[in-house]
From TrEMBL:
Pfam families, per database record: Thump_like
Gene3D superfamilies given in the database record: Vaccinia Virus protein VP39 (3.40.50.150)
A single BP term in Gene Ontology: methylation
All copies of domain THUMP-like, residue ranges: 319-394
Keywords: Methyltransferase, Transferase
Entry-linked InterPro entries: SAM-dependent_MTases_sf (IPR029063), Thump-like (IPR041497)
Keyword check for Transferase: yes
Phylogenetic placement of the source organism: Bacteria, Bacillati, Actinomycetota, Actinomycetes, Nakamurellales
Protein name: Class I SAM-dependent methyltransferase
Top-level lineage group: Bacteria
Single Gene Ontology MF annotation: methyltransferase activity
């Protein structure tokens, strides 16, 4: 269970003694296997606040991947860090929020990640933050140097600003589709209070945005191939009637977008026979229901009307694809023959629509997988039409332009 920070914990962490204690703890491993040995050294300098010191150092280490330039001295809670945007994603959203030329009020500022991104891009623009959680508010003040206030997102406490909220998520089973009722506050509650000036909402990438039927644009943002968030932009932010947008970001600075205004290619992208390559589009493209639009942009087509795979004779720049070497039925004898013929020792299995568990299916080929582990192949299992098809492939990547 995550540690719950108290007001006295923050008083200590922000004091000179707290700074010294954090410095001592930083020199320790503080791993699960070393905690019993490390804790006495932390208690010697931090006393009753040792747990808060240990948790802070462990959270800062975890934050290095999300907030590499800020993790060293920020304060976090476990839940707030989990929900915080990776820095490239926060900066991208901040640019759009600031594009209206107004101040921005973050109604659920938490530990201040989005406030920091907004302030970095526009230090002279009014940036307001509010939250109900007193501990997180103090952390936000420390992390950003900005003044924040305690207020409910379901109340009106500012005027003339773009309103933005990143509501907390209710605990839910992974098999259940996320709806507008699965946030705290709910989407309906926020829309009811702020009906005159709709709030820009950051929601989980798996949200049922069609079910919300909210006017404006839905933007799905991915980073390094993983879908990170759905952002619901009110009508005034929707440009040229765009309703769906996929934004693809990379830690290396890569950035491209596609929208429903780009066109789906009509008959040129409908399902057809497999081409030289199979490609699994970026998660943002899939979640935004823009697979055909992306296929059209690159001269590709769907493999099947019910799958997100596309196929064709080219690989877009920088995109991972699978060169199809053999095609056949999903038959263990056939697949084992492919493995032995190529001396493969490592087999990647991807499936779409078959219901096959890749890990369990791979175990059936332990004897066949006796080749060098440096020899790698990819087996793609897909339901095409009414049957299941196996594609024996080699992973390739399109060259990066520029």
């Amino acid at each position: 269970m995550a540690y719950g920070f108290s007001g006295p914990d923050l008083d200590f962490l922000l004091s000179r003694n707290g700074s010294h204690s954090l410095g001592v703890a930083e020199t320790l491993a503080l791993a699960d296997g070393t905690l019993l040995a490390d804790l006495p050294r932390v208690r010697a300098v931090a006393g009753t606040h040792a747990a808060a010191v240990v948790e802070t150092i462990r959270l800062r280490r975890r934050a290095l991947t999300k907030l590499p330039e800020r993790a060293a001295d920020w304060l976090f809670t476990d839940e707030a860090l989990q929900q915080a945007s990776p820095w490239p994603v926060a900066l991208h959203r901040a640019r759009r929020l600031l594009g209206a030329g107004l101040g921005v009020h973050d109604l659920t500022c938490s530990i201040g990640t989005d406030l920091a991104a907004l302030h970095q891009l526009a230090p002279d623009t009014t940036v307001l933050g509010s939250d109900l959680d007193a501990v997180r508010l103090r952390m936000a003040e420390h992390n950003t140097g900005l003044q924040v206030v305690r207020a409910d997102a379901r109340s009106r406490v500012s005027r003339g600003c773009v309103l933005y909220a990143d509501p907390a998520r209710r605990a839910a089973g992974s098999s259940r589709r996320i709806t507008g009722l699965d946030t705290i506050p709910s989407v309906a509650e926020l829309d009811d209070v702020h009906h005159e000036e709709r709030v820009v909402l950051r929601l989980p990438p798996g949200i049922d945005y069609d079910g919300l039927a909210r006017p404006g644009e839905v933007e799905i943002v991915s980073l390094d191939g993983g879908a990170r968030e759905s952002v619901l932009w009110p009508q005034r932010f929707a440009v040229d009637g765009i309703r769906r947008r996929a934004t693809v970001l990379g830690s290396d600075g890569a950035h491209w977008q596609i929208t429903d205004a780009d066109g789906d290619g009509g008959e040129h992208t409908v399902a057809g026979a497999v081409g030289r390559y199979l490609i699994d589009p970026d998660a943002a493209v899939v979640r935004a229901h823009l697979v055909r639009h992306w296929a059209s942009r690159h001269g590709l087509r769907l493999l099947d009307g019910h799958l997100a795979y596309v196929t064709g004779g080219v690989v877009p720049d920088g995109v991972r694809a699978f060169e199809v070497l053999e095609t056949g039925a999903v038959n263990e004898k056939t697949i084992a023959g492919w493995i032995r013929a190529t001396g493969v020792g490592t087999l990647e299995i991807k499936q779409r629509g078959t219901g096959i568990d890749p890990d369990q299916f791979r175990r059936r080929f332990r004897k066949a997988l006796s080749g060098s582990t440096s020899e790698v192949a990819t087996l793609v299992l897909a339901r095409v039409g009414r049957g299941q098809v196996a594609y024996w492939c080699r992973a390739v990547r399109g060259p990066r332009s520029g």
